[in-house]
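Protein: Uma2 family endonuclease
Species: Leucothrix arctica
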Amino acid sequence: MEWSEVVDNPLLRDLPFKIELNKFGKLLMSPASNNHGMLQGALAGALWNKHPEGRVITVCSVQTSDGVKVADVAWASAAFIEEFGYTTPYIQAPELCIEIVSPSNSKLEISGKVDLYLAKGAQEVWVVYDNNVMEIFTYKGQVDESPMSGGIREQIFR
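Structure follows.
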């Protein structure tokens, strides 16, 4: 399956799942909880307030070497949007990609997504857990804070 077929398929539009494709074109679905949605909204709002010079994108699709992955939240600079617009899926990752961990996600799956987003050009990948934990990754590995994240952790985990 190609990503355009997923996006255009009326049977897949209203599913309560996050949909991705693996490198073989097979659908991967993860159920989303209300807490997942709350974290997604809180992150999007906090990013919008802290970094209004860019664009916040929820459910941001990125073509990777392992198929189309969908970041729960992403932040793209004005320069990124000028270059790539709103192409679906992006062939390069926006500067920031965020994954909110669901109970159905394994550590190996999340670690793989971090690597895939960084390989596609993301400057940072945040992994957010529902137990008030947020991990930040750059090409250097895991870091404690970043210019993008300053103050956001406190806003989303109130």
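Remarks: The chain has one domain: 32-156.
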